[in-house]
Amino acid sequence: MRLLLDSHTLIWAADDTAKLSAVAQELIQDPAHDRLVSAASIWEIAIKYGMGRLPLSLPYRPWMDQVIADLALDILPITLDQAERQAGLPWHHRDPFDRLLAAQALVEGIPLISADAAFDPYGVNRIWL
Protein backbone atom coordinates (compact mmCIF):
# COMPACT_ATOMS: atom_id res chain seq x y z
CA MET A 1 0.00 0.00 0.00
CA ARG A 2 1.14 3.56 -0.73
CA LEU A 3 1.02 5.89 2.29
CA LEU A 4 1.42 9.67 2.42
CA LEU A 5 2.94 11.04 5.63
CA ASP A 6 1.72 14.36 6.99
CA SER A 7 4.48 16.82 7.93
CA HIS A 8 4.06 16.31 11.68
CA THR A 9 4.02 12.54 11.18
CA LEU A 10 7.34 12.78 9.37
CA ILE A 11 8.85 14.93 12.13
CA TRP A 12 7.59 12.62 14.88
CA ALA A 13 8.75 9.50 13.03
CA ALA A 14 12.25 11.00 12.91
CA ASP A 15 12.58 12.86 16.22
CA ASP A 16 9.82 11.83 18.65
CA THR A 17 8.31 8.42 17.90
CA ALA A 18 6.41 8.42 21.21
CA LYS A 19 4.00 10.93 19.63
CA LEU A 20 3.04 8.49 16.88
CA SER A 21 0.02 6.25 17.33
CA ALA A 22 0.69 2.51 17.43
CA VAL A 23 -1.06 2.15 14.06
CA ALA A 24 1.05 4.92 12.50
CA GLN A 25 4.27 3.38 13.85
CA GLU A 26 3.34 -0.05 12.53
CA LEU A 27 2.48 1.23 9.05
CA ILE A 28 5.56 3.43 8.79
CA GLN A 29 7.87 0.59 9.88
CA ASP A 30 6.33 -2.05 7.60
CA PRO A 31 8.64 -2.43 4.57
CA ALA A 32 5.72 -3.78 2.54
CA HIS A 33 4.33 -0.24 2.28
CA ASP A 34 5.55 2.50 -0.02
CA ARG A 35 5.98 5.59 2.15
CA LEU A 36 5.66 8.99 0.49
CA VAL A 37 6.56 12.48 1.58
CA SER A 38 5.03 15.37 -0.32
CA ALA A 39 7.19 18.05 -1.86
CA ALA A 40 4.82 20.37 0.03
CA SER A 41 5.91 18.88 3.37
CA ILE A 42 9.56 19.22 2.44
CA TRP A 43 8.93 22.88 1.68
CA GLU A 44 6.79 23.45 4.81
CA ILE A 45 9.43 21.98 7.11
CA ALA A 46 12.16 24.06 5.43
CA ILE A 47 10.15 27.26 5.88
CA LYS A 48 9.36 26.62 9.54
CA TYR A 49 12.93 25.53 10.29
CA GLY A 50 14.32 28.60 8.52
CA MET A 51 12.05 30.87 10.56
CA GLY A 52 13.29 29.28 13.77
CA ARG A 53 9.82 27.88 14.56
CA LEU A 54 10.74 24.22 14.15
CA PRO A 55 13.64 22.64 15.99
CA LEU A 56 15.03 19.51 14.37
CA SER A 57 17.59 17.03 15.69
CA LEU A 58 20.01 18.06 12.90
CA PRO A 59 20.29 21.06 10.57
CA TYR A 60 17.57 21.01 7.91
CA ARG A 61 19.33 19.37 4.92
CA PRO A 62 21.15 16.61 6.82
CA TRP A 63 17.95 15.98 8.79
CA MET A 64 15.83 15.70 5.65
CA ASP A 65 18.38 13.51 3.85
CA GLN A 66 18.58 11.19 6.87
CA VAL A 67 14.80 10.95 7.29
CA ILE A 68 14.27 10.17 3.61
CA ALA A 69 16.94 7.46 3.78
CA ASP A 70 15.95 6.00 7.16
CA LEU A 71 12.25 5.77 6.33
CA ALA A 72 12.89 4.79 2.69
CA LEU A 73 10.64 7.62 1.53
CA ASP A 74 9.74 8.49 -2.03
CA ILE A 75 9.07 12.14 -2.77
CA LEU A 76 5.60 12.85 -4.14
CA PRO A 77 5.87 15.79 -6.54
CA ILE A 78 3.16 18.40 -6.85
CA THR A 79 1.25 17.93 -10.09
CA LEU A 80 -1.08 20.22 -11.99
CA ASP A 81 -3.98 17.85 -11.24
CA GLN A 82 -3.26 18.05 -7.51
CA ALA A 83 -2.97 21.84 -7.58
CA GLU A 84 -6.24 22.08 -9.48
CA ARG A 85 -7.96 19.79 -6.95
CA GLN A 86 -6.65 21.94 -4.09
CA ALA A 87 -8.02 25.06 -5.76
CA GLY A 88 -11.48 23.51 -5.86
CA LEU A 89 -11.57 22.23 -2.27
CA PRO A 90 -14.03 23.86 0.13
CA TRP A 91 -12.45 26.10 2.74
CA HIS A 92 -12.80 23.75 5.71
CA HIS A 93 -9.14 24.38 6.44
CA ARG A 94 -6.99 27.42 5.59
CA ASP A 95 -3.49 25.92 5.89
CA PRO A 96 -2.15 25.80 2.31
CA PHE A 97 0.19 22.89 3.02
CA ASP A 98 -2.58 20.78 4.52
CA ARG A 99 -4.96 21.65 1.70
CA LEU A 100 -2.36 20.45 -0.80
CA LEU A 101 -1.77 17.24 1.15
CA ALA A 102 -5.52 16.63 1.13
CA ALA A 103 -5.64 17.19 -2.63
CA GLN A 104 -2.67 14.90 -3.20
CA ALA A 105 -4.22 12.11 -1.12
CA LEU A 106 -7.52 12.47 -2.99
CA VAL A 107 -6.05 12.67 -6.50
CA GLU A 108 -3.61 9.82 -5.90
CA GLY A 109 -6.18 7.73 -3.99
CA ILE A 110 -3.80 7.10 -1.11
CA PRO A 111 -4.28 7.25 2.67
CA LEU A 112 -2.71 10.03 4.70
CA ILE A 113 -1.05 9.18 8.00
CA SER A 114 -1.98 12.14 10.19
CA ALA A 115 -3.25 12.96 13.68
CA ASP A 116 -4.98 16.04 12.25
CA ALA A 117 -8.77 15.59 12.00
CA ALA A 118 -8.94 18.75 9.85
CA PHE A 119 -8.49 16.44 6.84
CA ASP A 120 -11.69 14.51 7.57
CA PRO A 121 -14.20 16.98 6.05
CA TYR A 122 -12.40 16.57 2.72
CA GLY A 123 -13.07 12.84 2.61
CA VAL A 124 -9.40 11.96 2.87
CA ASN A 125 -8.68 8.42 4.00
CA ARG A 126 -6.81 9.47 7.16
CA ILE A 127 -5.10 6.83 9.25
CA TRP A 128 -4.09 7.40 12.86
CA LEU A 129 -6.07 5.71 15.65
How would you explain this protein's 3D organization?
With 129 residues, this protein is an alpha/beta fold. The chain has one domain: Rossmann fold (3-Layer(aba) Sandwich). It contains 6 helices and 5 strands. Strands 3-2-1-4-5 form a 5-stranded parallel sheet. Helix 5 (80-88) crosses helix 6 (96-108). The longest helix is centred in the C-terminal third of the chain and has 13 residues, at 96-108. The protein is globular, with a radius of gyration of 14 Å. 34% of the residues are buried.
Helical fraction equals 40-55%
What name does CATH use for the topology? Answer: Rossmann fold
Supply the number of helical segments: 6
Work out the number of β strands. 5
Poorly predicted runs are: none
Q: Give the N-to-C terminal Cα separation.
A: 18 Å
The biggest beta sheet is recorded as: 5 strands, parallel
CATH class: Alpha Beta
Portion in beta strands:
5-15%
Number of domains: 1
CATH superfamily annotation:
5'-nuclease
Biggest sheet strand line-up: 3-2-1-4-5
Question: Strand-and-helix sequence, N→C?
Answer: EHHEHHEHHEE
What would you say the CATH architecture is?
3-Layer(aba) Sandwich
Question: Topology of this structure?
Answer:
Elements: E1 2-5, H1 7-15, H2 22-29, E2 34-38, H3 39-50, H4 60-70, E3 73-76, H5 80-88, H6 96-108, E4 112-113, E5 126-127
Parallel strand pairs: 1-2, 1-4, 2-3, 4-5
